Fold this protein.
Amino acid sequence: MGRYLIAGASGYVGARLAGHLLAQGHYVRGLMRDAESDTAQRLAAQGVAIWQADLTQPESLVGVATGIDHVYNLTSRFVLENGLLRRLYLEGNRNLIAACSRSRSVRSYVFTSSVAPYGDRGDEWLTEDSPVAPNYPLAETLVAAERVLLEAARAHAFPAIVLRVGQIYGPGRDPIETVRSGTATLIGDGRNFVPHIHVDDLVEILARVAVDGQPGAIYNVVDDEPLRAAELYGEIRRRLGMVPPRSFPRDAALFAGMDPSVVGVASSSARVSNQRIRQEFGLTLRYPSYRVWLDEQLPIEEPSEVEMAV
């Protein structure tokens, strides 16, 4: 069995990945800032070895990767905290890379970026070979963080792997609930493509990539069918019996003081292909499209025989 370190083990994805790896009999060390949190205590009860640390504080990482085979850096922060994000993604990756290099046992280091580095590309299909074109602060920070990893892979044969992940959804993080609660906002004309990935599929991919992924590679982790924002939210609202969504012009959102990264994430178009990861790993996604999840959560009721007769 393998020995795994998850930085960000208390997060939405990290906690699920930890449970998945434990169920397969692996050793899991969970790096988190607050070892006393409810999530940390729950993970510890499941068998996760908790390591309290801050990626921006290198002294807290001494020994964290000792004896570890595979490392995940799943840490993130809210996009409004752009200054902290840059420290976390750049300094944090450098510090964790150094800790892994000292251990001499690490065989893979997986960093979860996002599709943001591609920028706003309209209807163009995007692959891992497409050039990056960041157009808001979060995207620029992620491009810089990816370069830290890829330079370490090229210059020092460090086993870094970058995943560009679509918008993650699943239980407890669902566009249906944001639409139902009225917190979902359609920024721009709604024609922008938004790639998604269900958290269950993401966990399966994370487990595979750490073992079988190519060091120095980039993989798009998205489903088979990117949807336009207006199409997605329009269909959810239709099934909820709500009127079609109203759009909020991008420039007006910025003028109103919305964070540029929030506006960028919501309005940029990234029609991203997952062909590389499907071909290399032979993956069949449980949720190849958000539509599958939508049909599970808000099924369209078939008309009864009485209704059809009428």
Observations:
- The radius of gyration is 20 Å.
- Residues 82-103 form the longest helix (22 residues).
